[in-house]
Write a structure and sequence with these properties.
This protein is of the alpha/beta class. It folds into two domains: about 1-200, DHBP synthase, CATH 3.90.870.10; about 225-305, Rossmann fold (3-Layer(aba) Sandwich). It contains ten helices and 13 strands. Strands 7-1-2-6-3-5-4-8-9 form a nine-stranded mixed sheet, sandwiched between helices. The protein has a four-stranded parallel sheet with strand order 10-13-11-12. The protein is globular and about 60 Å long. It binds threonylcarbamoyladenylate and magnesium ion. Threonylcarbamoyladenylate binds near residues 49, 100, 131 and 213.
């Protein structure tokens, strides 16, 4: 990990596992390193990045005027699948925030990610900017092999890909805007609205903010195959559905999760498998629950556009 942290310090990129999806990391204070993230991803450079830190003690380096409720959220859910959007400090450059006055901060819950972030901080680093390690608009990678498949052609020989196995959660973190008097959810994830309300004692508002979230653009999280939201696949189509739903004849079953957590965990690798098999259409029967199923439906509705 020392070695990977040294690469970050030297301005190289390090892809690393988190509990949500794999991230493509760079020293968040290094303009040149961060600009390589944009070129490797093929991402427009006015899209803000999440700064990953080893503990909430570092929040004050990147943010100012942090509200009480955001501190309560950080205490309850970090390390974990939650990103807080806070008013930025001077350390957070325009190349991190997309020129906005806010910065996204997260403490991931993964031993490899935390070891990397701690080693980086011991070496004098402040934080690691990391978007999901996929080409812009594609499905996020949940294994190291998927990172290499996505970005292998664009990385340099000094960049590093750390392998921490398959990501536990499988969909990206909940993004919570904490720049207003009450929190608002910009992207649903494993930390649900009910959990946020219980933790903060505040009723959260529907997002009407002007804040840009790239995942809210059309056609995001999309595989090459066309994604169709339906219960009734036909011959030659891929199919992702709960284990108790049968596979009609001639349909290619890609995943059979038994609960919503497993659905989230398997979803992106199943969509990738559809592409590997060269399928042109994948039918997904959506989970109907409230917990992480909200995040699954959010990503699927974007993938299906
Ligand atoms: O689970 C995750 O959040 C993963 C892992 C690697 O941590 N990261 C991730 O990053 O999903 P990315 O860049 O693929 O998606 C982050 C989203 C983007 O849509 C970005 O626009 C939004 O967070 N974001 C980042 N900073 C922001 C800010 N200051 N204001 C509003 N949105 C922000
Ligand atoms: Mg992403």
């Amino acid at each position: 990990m020392l070695d990977a942290a040294a690469h970050l310090k030297a301005g190289d990129l390090v892809a690393f596992p988190t509990e949500t999806v794999y991230g493509l990391g760079a020293d968040a204070t290094n303009l040149h390193a961060v600009s390589r993230i944009y070129s490797v991803k093929g991402r427009p450079n006015d899209h803000p990045l999440i700064v990953h830190i080893a503990s909430m003690d570092r929040m004050g380096d990147w943010a100012r005027d942090v509200p009480e409720y955001a501190i309560a959220l950080a205490r309850s859910f970090w390390p974990g699948p939650m990103t807080l959007i806070l008013k930025r400090s001077e350390l957070a450059g325009d190349f991190i925030t997309g020129g906005q006055d806010s910065v996204g901060v997260r403490v991931p819950d993964h031993v490899v990610a935390l070891a990397l972030l701690e080693a980086f901080e011991r070496a004098g680093g402040k934080g690691v900017a990391a978007p999901s390690a996929n080409r812009f608009g594609h499905v996020s990678p949940t294994t190291a092999a998927a990172v290499i498949e996505e970005l292998g052609d664009y990385l340099s020989k000094d960049d590093v890909v750390l392998d921490g196995g398959a990501c536990d959660v499988g969909v990206e973190s909940t993004i919570i805007d904490c720049t207003g008097v009450v929190p608002s959810v910009l992207r649903p994830g494993a930390i649900t609205e009910a959990m946020i309300e219980k933790c903060t004692g505040l009723e959260i508002t529907l997002s009407n903010s002007q804040i840009r979230v790239s995942g809210s653009l059309e056609n995001h999280y999309a595989p090459i195959a066309k994604v169709i939201l339906s219960e009734t696949p036909t011959q030659g189509q891929g199919f992702i559905a709960y284990a108790n739903i049968e596979t009609p004849a001639g349909v290619i079953r890609l995943a059979s999760p038994r609960n919503d957590e497993e659905f989230a965990h398997l979803l992106y690798s199943a969509l990738r498998e559809g592409d590997t098999q060269g399928l042109s259409e994948v039918v997904v029967s959506q989970p109907i629950g409230n917990g992480i199923a909200v995040a699954i439906r959010d990503r699927l509705s974007k993938a299906a556009r």
